């Protein structure tokens, strides 16, 4: 077997209306300059999170296939609205398509939780369309009844006084991962993309400038209960009711195959959100991979070699591995 070049990480800048945004690019010296690129948007409810939080298994998938992985920053609500998110998604998409000096690279777009919303608005509003979409317990739309039912996640509603400071602060990107254990380190992988058995993150300090107030995430709970998300993203969130319209057959035909990884016991985002969107898109455009009994972002710390055994003895990481196999089929067929 030929030796593989080790994974590396570089931080690069792309611009939105002359506003610099950063992204982390994971690649290696032996990657081709004209292959597929994976563009990833981090979780955080559109109100927090950081690009440095990337699932290890996803980095493995990309490295083993020699796909550069671009983990992009984006500006947060409420300092920007849906149009601002689309601007950031467009700039990140154009950056990924032209990575390495190429202008026509195929791009798979994925996201964790609300980061996946940026993937769907790319398809709604931009051309050319991505090669595929990958939802990781994602939010494809805020036009679902879950976001209009005054859902209460904490025991009591979040008081406006607890979040008002975040509503008036300057425009910012996510700078603090939702979970310090979700920070990805390149030396956690061996050059061949397998898990490094000698790696430990114990004692490591997070990268600099990742000190955002963790309580900013309360905005998600607050706006979910207030049914306020759609008022902020209404201009770009087209929902999926159109998929049943006979006059929208062309749009449905052009929609890329979308693969959903979903825990059946997700409390932060009802599994019905992705299940209903998958049903609307139909079996030719949607593949739903369910992990029984698992909560939101259940796979966030996992490597492909890891197991997540439920009470029935089933390995819930099989949902991730199934999604990867389906993604390979999609790529091979395009």
Give the key terms.
9 helices; 8-stranded mixed beta sheet; two-stranded antiparallel sheet; single chain; 26% helix; 16% strand; 334 residues; alpha/beta
Your description of this structure?
By secondary structure, the protein is of the alpha/beta class. The strands form 2 sheets. An 8-stranded mixed β-sheet has the order 1-2-5-3-6-7-9-10, sandwiched between helices. The chain has a two-stranded antiparallel sheet with strand order 4-8. A hairpin with a 2-residue loop joins β1 and β2. α2 crosses α3.
Summarize it.
The protein is built from 9 helices and 10 strands.
Element layout with pairings:
Elements: E1 8-16, E2 19-27, E3 37-41, E4 49-50, H1 56-64, E5 69-72, H2 82-97, E6 107-112, H3 115-125, E7 132-136, H4 164-167, E8 175-176, H5 218-226, H6 229-233, H7 249-254, E9 258-263, H8 271-281, E10 286-291, H9 318-333
Parallel strand pairs: 3-5, 3-6, 6-7, 7-9, 9-10
Antiparallel strand pairs: 1-2, 2-5, 4-8
Helix pairs in contact: 2-3
Tell me the total number of β-strands: 10
Query: What topology, given as strand order, has the largest sheet?
Result: 1-2-5-3-6-7-9-10
Overall pLDDT level: 95
Q: Largest beta sheet, briefly?
A: 8 strands, mixed
Name the poorly predicted regions: none
Categorize the overall geometry. globular
Radius of gyration equals 19 Å
The total of helices stands at 9
The topology string of helices and strands comes to: EEEEHEHEHEHEHHHEHEH
Strand content: 15-25%
Give the helix proportion (percent range): 25-40%
Distance between the termini: 28 Å
Protein name: Alpha/Beta hydrolase protein
Domain Alpha/beta hydrolase fold-3: 39-129
Keywords: Hydrolase
GO molecular function: hydrolase activity
């Amino acid at each position: 077997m030929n030796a593989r070049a080790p994974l590396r990480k570089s931080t690069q800048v792309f611009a939105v209306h002359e506003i610099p945004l950063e992204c982390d690019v994971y690649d290696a010296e032996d990657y081709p300059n004209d292959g597929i690129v994976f563009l990833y948007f981090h979780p955080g409810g559109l109100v927090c999170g950081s690009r440095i939080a990337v699932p290890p298994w996803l980095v493995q998938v990309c490295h083993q296939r020699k796909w550069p992985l671009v983990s992009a920053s984006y500006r947060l609500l409420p300092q920007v609205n849906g149009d601002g998110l689309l601007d950031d998604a467009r700039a990140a998409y154009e950056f990924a398509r032209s990575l390495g000096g190429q202008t026509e690279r195929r791009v798979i777009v994925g996201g964790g939780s609300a980061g996946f919303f940026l993937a769907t608005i790319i398809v709604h509003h931009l051309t050319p369309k991505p090669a595929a979409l990958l939802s990781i317990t994602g939010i494809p739309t805020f036009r679902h009844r879950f976001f209009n039912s005054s859902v209460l996640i904490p025991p009591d509603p979040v008081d406006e006084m607890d979040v008002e400071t975040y509503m008036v602060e300057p425009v910012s990107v996510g700078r603090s991962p939702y979970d310090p254990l979700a920070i990805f380190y390149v030396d956690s992988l061996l050059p061949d993309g397998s898990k490094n058995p000698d790696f430990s993150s114990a004692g490591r300090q997070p990268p600099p400038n990742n000190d955002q107030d963790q309580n900013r995430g309360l905005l998600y709970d607050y706006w979910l209960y207030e049914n306020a998300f759609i008022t902020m993203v209404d201009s770009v969130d087209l929902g999926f009711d159109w998929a049943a319209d006979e006059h929208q057959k062309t749009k449905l035909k052009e929609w890329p195959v979308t693969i959903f990884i979903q825990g059946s016991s997700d409390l932060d985002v009802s599994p019905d959100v992705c299940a209903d969107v998958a049903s609307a898109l139909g079996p030719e455009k949607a593949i739903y991979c369910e992990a029984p009994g698992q909560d939101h972002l259940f796979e966030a710390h996992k490597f492909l070699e890891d197991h997540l055994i439920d009470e029935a003895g089933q390995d819930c990481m099989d949902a991730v591995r199934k999604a990867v196999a389906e993604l390979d089929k999609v790529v091979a067929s395009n």
